[in-house]
Specification:
With 493 residues, this protein is mostly helical. Among the domains are: 161 residues, HUPs (Rossmann fold); 52 residues; 105 residues, Arc Repressor Mutant, subunit A (Orthogonal Bundle). Helices cover 44% and strands 9% of the residues. It is built from 21 helices and eleven strands. A three-stranded antiparallel β-sheet has the order 3-4-7. Strand 8, helix 7 and strand 9 form a beta-alpha-beta unit. Helix 12 crosses helix 13 and helix 17 crosses helix 20. It is elongated and about 105 Å long. 34% of the residues are buried.
Amino acid sequence: MTDTPRPVRTRYAPSPTGDPHIGNIRSALFSWAYARANGGQFLLRIEDTDRNRLVETSVDAIMDSLRWLGIDWDEGPDVGGPHAPYFQSQRLPLYRKAAETLIDRGRAYRCFCTAERLDQMRAAQAAAKRPPGYDGLCRGLSREESVSRAGREPYVVRFAMRKDGQTVLNDIIRGDVVFENSLQDDFVMLKSDGYPTYHLALIVDDTEMEISHCIRGDEWISSAPKHIQIYEALELEPPQWAHLPLILGPDHKKLSKRSGDTAILDYRTNGYLPEAMVNFLAFLGWSLDDHTSILGAEELARHFDLARVVPNPAVFDIERLNHLNGHYIRAMEDARWQATIAEWCERQLPDSVARPIDPEIVASVAPLLKERVARLDEIAGLVEFLFGYEAPEYDLDALTERVSGSNETALQALDGALVALDEVPEAAWNRDAIEAAIRGMETRLGLKLRKFVPVLYVAEMGRPHGIPLFDSLELLGRERALQRLRTARARLG
């Protein structure tokens, strides 16, 4: 052990058992930010030792998620490095060697208990209302018997936990967390197929890869005494520990798919910007100061400090994420914004719309969308009405449902608009003239604007709201606008 500070090296070590979600990607972001803020290195390691739960596409999804958010790594499966390989399944001899060392030191032992025997043990414990855990039957085997049986019987290797005294976790975020050793279980560290469990692989790999800080979710706190004791038994220097706070849903219950715990890439699919996602994740349990709420990845990488992480649970607030997304949309440069509109229109508009998307339409609608879109997946629905001459599809009831179900009021609105807009000549067809004509309908019809405008939205755009009506009518052009009103009037009867 040494008191000399080690160079900062952090890692993200996901299991490829599915697409990464909010919690584990936040751990990756904080680990990356801490390394960058301290002039250190950030590693990507794939913990693929749970062979029964492997998902073939998961590794690509992990890397894609990180790249989307701008999280780069200095060492990893695709970039290599001095500590390769970075897949745990390719590092099995290292875990076997560590397990044998622990057996030789009396801190681990072979366990020959069958699955049937373990099931019976757990049933007996449950019946007696005792806490579950291995009863230590094989811990008392002599070395000679253990070696002899190992040649003819399958076995796992269990770590022999100290049963006296306490194990103390010195955590950067939580301070000292004390565990009673008498409550700890002798856990499996090497399975019968030669693959390690997380508990052993973590220590071997973090040591070999010179990890200085282990930053992970607080669901691993209960495992901390296992990991600390393995470090002690192998006479290795542990990293500094930092256990991040739990993320709760808006109801302050465990985060679920319903409350936001979906795959990170789903947020990309649903129209969120990476800048917004990074900003949002950064403030789940951390803050720069008492007033900053907008923070980009570069600023995060300069200023991140584990001392500013709080132990209290963070709350996932989708409205906050939507607000941030809207902020970053409005901050987009015009060229990028227009390219984004075109991209999402290409992706989501019906096949009947000609490709490539008309750049003139994109340019004309871009300023109108920028102030109204919170998510990119809203774009296509808002602009589809501009592509094509014929009126968009809509439920006939939509013409009346926004006016208290009144067919009469809807007819008044359509008839009034046909008269008012027909008086606007082609040469004067612009936003101001259109607005004046439609506002004049209030007096003609004896109705407030809010009463009949939704009818016009449906007739022109197929929906009761969207980008501003007067601008939309200008973009449609006089002929198309009037034709759609006539179509709606005929449909309504």
